[in-house]
């Protein structure tokens, strides 16, 4: 494992310099002219590193260009708290270090992209980054222009497409949120309009009751009766749609027998509130006046419907509040960039944001959560982007029909999130390429090829975790493994 305090010890070794003839034996220089070989011989030197020693460290300024002469070396990249070995070689002539020194100076400090350690006593031919950059620009100007164009073009393309994907993600989030907000907002609007009509109706019924010369004690009793009916409705057991329909018929018949006006309009209100004929018989007996029964039933019906409408408005506004809260959790606009979280919170908020794609397509969601999992240290907004990419890909793979399974569990010192679908699967020939930038199996215009690449970099480079694919027809799973401990970079 490399550390910032480990000393790098490069020492000169014999013969100190290589002759043009010796340089020509290295495949990197074999096509150069004698004058070019002589220039390189004058500007380079030979250096030695003992076995186990660090040759260059990731993140340090890229000041030297190395060509291996003898020995075995290993290249590695830092991932969280670990050094991941990317290659190991003993091939004479391989090069590493300041390999991009020939690029024009754009003001961005250049550093080593990885670390190199000598696994055995190793010798190198070394050029300074400045000399190597001058040599490349002066001797191979056309090649440098092509390489610069390729490098800068790839950077620009990736930045532009990355920005495009972020805008698409924002658009998808906005569209999904607007789609989800529209239903409860419309329901609240409809309920408010109906509530206004019912309140007006209640005022009219109250006026008619008063004109009916109802004794004050009887009117008070009627008001108390109304409150009792409303309270009974609030405590009524939940009925199925079939049970409610049967109750409507029973109530309608009861009201028809007593000459209640518009009985088949009033009966559904009482049935929805869970009021049965036993309750209506009690109302009838306590009125002690058959002439008031019609107006009392309608007045109580208005009160019941008013309560139901207010409950609808409360449910709709609560739904709006829940959606806004889910959006805040998804984007983490009001939280610090890095924190300890329950991984299920981000998964649930992502499902809410994508619910219009999931439910509209008829996809079943199965959650197999291990709620005993400990909190983990992450960048929540970045991790939610990973869940969005993986869930969205799963939904698209199933083409509107299938089962989305999200499972969480602990594996050694890591939390594992499995996102699976029942789509056709990923062919064996391209499984290894799914995390490559710009690689996509989607039709032209439907994918950037960066979703899984971005997800990989967030999980692996940003969180010290791992992401892998298991796939066969009808069972495709992306497994995201995140460490339980605090990453060194956090």
From TrEMBL:
Keyword Transferase annotated: yes
Keyword field contains DNA repair: no
Keyword line: Kinase, Transferase, Two-component regulatory system
Residue span, Cyclic nucleotide-binding domain: 28-132
InterPro entries cross-referenced by the UniProt entry: cNMP-bd_dom, cNMP-bd_dom_sf, HATPase_C_sf, HATPase_dom, His_kinase_dom, RmlC-like_jellyroll, Sig_transdc_His_kin-like_C
This enzyme's EC code(s): 2.7.13.3
Alphabetized Pfam families for the sequence: cNMP_binding (PF00027), HATPase_c (PF02518)
GO biological process: phosphorelay signal transduction system
Catalytic activity: ATP + protein L-histidine = ADP + protein N-phospho-L-histidine
Domain of life per record: Bacteria
Protein's recorded name: histidine kinase
Native organism: Actinoplanes siamensis
